[in-house]
Specification:
mainly alpha; two-stranded antiparallel sheet; 21 helices; 2 strands; about 0% strand; disordered C terminus
Length: about 475
């Protein structure tokens, strides 16, 4: 037998062995034991204050799973935990830029995964809303913003990843999420968000324990820089435990634990919007989980009553403000709101673009960040004008249709699953009204994109060949 005759046989043996290895790797990296290891490792990073080293460790784990595992969900939990604990690395551009070399193996692993484990490209109806938003972002500032500002590194990162980057992410992720598994992909993703929420609680409680002496003396939570970011993660995770309550009612304790963590962050946005989200989750759970409806109603009444009764003490303890001074007169957001209105009038069609540098007098961000309005609607109006308003409105309509249109065909549990995922996105959307939120590509916009890539019905195969 010649060497040319042996080549196909050797290749078949190699591919068979690699497939077997990948299957074993999928089972391990999706196991509860590996999840427990990741959770403990992330807690170790927080307790020992090794966020930078931890980021390198977790990027290494993500690269390993990308290469070994065919299932893209194996990368999800390490990515989520990494995103949570690096929120404590405020203004660390100069620190992390020293690890820019890690981008090379990370990109290589991503390319390897989506080439070696390629799947048919599928799209759903929400994809077209994503396209509309991408076009509005790319056209933002057309005819106004300077080329220097538009093509600055920071602006290119946000403009590129929020537009073309999210379109590519949707196509690649959905192609892999549509593959039939021996588990429910939506439920698995929901459980990963749940674990992320529990880890965020740990990080907040660790912060509180380190400052316990100050808290006990002043009865006020000291200022904590990542309060708004951790609140965003907590609000994304808050709805997740409700799906698991029918299986074990003790899961109902977790949303209240998350709300307690929101209080301890010291974030005004987290406190106010978290209370609203918790009440909405309880009422929604009462609608679809009828056997426990009375329990949800009792919890809702008790929660609302307690908040109204202790609102002044709660605000003073969490945010060190009274209800009357909840929004101070010198709040920068008010000035940014006026500025957004003025700029929208001047440039109504395409806005001034995300790379606009003119708001530095009101808000000076950290190195590498944008001049945010910290409010989603003014950000869309001022940065993208009428084009952005129409694009984001169309995206929202398609997302609502995606959530509720298939309800008649679903079981009660499937309805609960879709509602829970939609509520997680709503939590992100609520926090985006007072923070950059969905204008941060990693992780918030990516999480939102992933949620609807999971829920969206596919409308066919396009562009790439079918996986054999």
């Amino acid at each position: 037998m010649t060497s040319s005759d042996q080549t196909p046989a050797l290749w078949n043996r190699f591919t068979h062995g690699w497939t077997k290895l990948s299957t074993m790797a999928n089972q391990f990296f999706l196991s509860r034991y590996f999840y427990l290891f990741l959770f403990c490792l992330a807690c170790f990073v927080v307790v020992t204050d090794r966020q930078v080293q931890g980021a390198v460790w977790f990027v290494g784990i993500i690269c390993l799973t990308l290469v070994l595992c065919e299932d893209i969900l194996t990368t999800t939990l390490p990515f989520l935990l990494l995103c949570v604990f690096v929120t404590e690395c405020y203004d660390s551009y100069d620190t992390f830029i020293g690890y820019i070399w890690a981008v090379i193996p990370a990109l290589a692993a991503v390319l390897f995964h989506f080439v070696a484990y390629r799947k048919p490209i599928k799209i759903g109806n929400t994809f077209w809303g994503l396209i509309a938003v991408s076009v509005a972002i790319l056209l933002g500032g057309f005819g106004f913003i300077s080329a220097e500002d538009y093509f600055s590194p920071g602006a290119l990162y946000y403009t590129g990843f929020l537009s073309i980057g999210m379109v590519v992410a949707y196509l690649l992720l959905k192609s892999q999420l549509c593959v039939k598994r021996d588990y429910d992909v939506k439920e698995k993703f929901l459980s990963l968000l749940y674990i992320m929420g529990m880890f965020t609680c740990f990080m907040v409680f660790h912060f509180a324990s380190e400052n316990w002496a100050t808290i006990r003396e002043t009865h006020v939570i000291p200022g904590w820089q990542p309060s708004n970011n951790t609140s965003t993660f907590l609000m994304i995770a808050m709805p997740c435990p409700f799906f698991f309550v029918p299986r074990n009612r003790y899961h109902l304790l977790s949303p209240f634990l998350i709300f307690g963590a929101l209080i301890l962050t010291g974030s005004r946005s987290g406190l106010l919007l978290g209370a609203v989200e918790l009440v909405l989750c309880l009422l929604l759970a009462a609608c679809w989980d009828s056997p426990r409806r009375f329990l949800y109603v009792c919890c809702t009444v008790a929660l609302v009553g307690l908040i109204l009764w202790k609102r002044d003490e709660l605000l003073r303890f969490s945010a060190n403000v009274s209800w009357k001074d909840f929004v101070p007169e010198n709040e920068v957001r008010f000035q940014l709101l006026i500025r957004a209105k003025e700029l929208f009038r001047e440039h109504p069609f395409f806005g001034h673009g995300l790379g606009y540098q003119g708001n530095t007098d009101l808000y000076s961000p950290t190195k590498g960040a944008m001049r945010w309005y910290h409010m989603m609607i003014p950000q869309v109006c001022a940065s993208m004008g009428i084009a952005g308003i129409l694009a984001y409105a169309s995206q929202l309509i398609l997302q609502i249709r995606c959530t509720f249109l298939p309800f008649k065909k679903l079981t009660t549990e499937q309805k609960g699953l879709r509602l829970t995922l939609a509520m997680s996105y709503l939590g992100l959307l609520m926090m985006s009204q007072l923070n950059p939120g969905i204008f941060c590509p990693l992780p918030y916009t990516l999480i939102g994109t992933l949620i609807f890539a999971l829920m969206d019905g596919s409308s066919g195969t396009t562009w790439l060949h079918k996986n054999k």
